[in-house]
Amino acid sequence: MHVYSARFHLHLPTNSLKGKRGIVKSILARARNNFNVASAEVDLHDVHGSAQLAFVTVNKDAVKARQVLEKLEEWLVEERPDVDIVDVLIEER
Predict the structure, then answer these.
(1) Which pLDDT belongs to residue 10?
(2) Residues whose CB is less than 8 angstroms from the CB of residue 66 and which lie 6 or more positions away in sequence, other chains included
(3) Which CATH architecture fits 2-92?
(4) Residues 35, 41, 44, 45: is their CA dihedral positive or negative?
(5) What's the CA gap between 14 and 60, in Å, rounded?
(6) CA angle (30 as vertex; 21, 10 as ends), nearest 5
(7) DSSP string across 42-76
């Protein structure tokens, strides 16, 4: 089995923690539903304009596991043009 993780550093279009929470919860829930991944906000909890989100998937095929996370990144760019992706790190665990 291959475990792949992706860590996204995002800039968010909000000036409040309440606005950030809405954006982050929406992204995490939709990613779970669309890609069958585990997800969480892992850093920058008190910074209203930024977020660190992590996604994890497991597959017996390493290529397919990585492709799921790459497709998730493409989906995020298409679905949330208001959110800027600063950095993405995809790695095998």
Answers:
(1) 93
(2) 4, 90, 92
(3) 2-Layer Sandwich (3.30)
(4) positive
(5) 39
(6) 50
(7) EE-TT-TTEEEEEEEEEESSHHHHHHHHHHHHHHH
Lookup: tokens for 76: 């995020």
Helix, coil or strand: residue 37: coil
The CA distance from 4 to 75, in Å, is: 18
The tokens describing 68, both together, are: 């799921």
pLDDT tens sequence for the chain (93 residues): 899 999 999 999 988 888 899 999 999 999 999 999 999 999 888 888 899 999 999 999 889 999 999 999 999 999 889 899 999 999 988
Task: State both tokens at 32.
Answer: 């779970």
User: What does the domain layout of the chain look like in residue ranges?
Assistant: 2-92
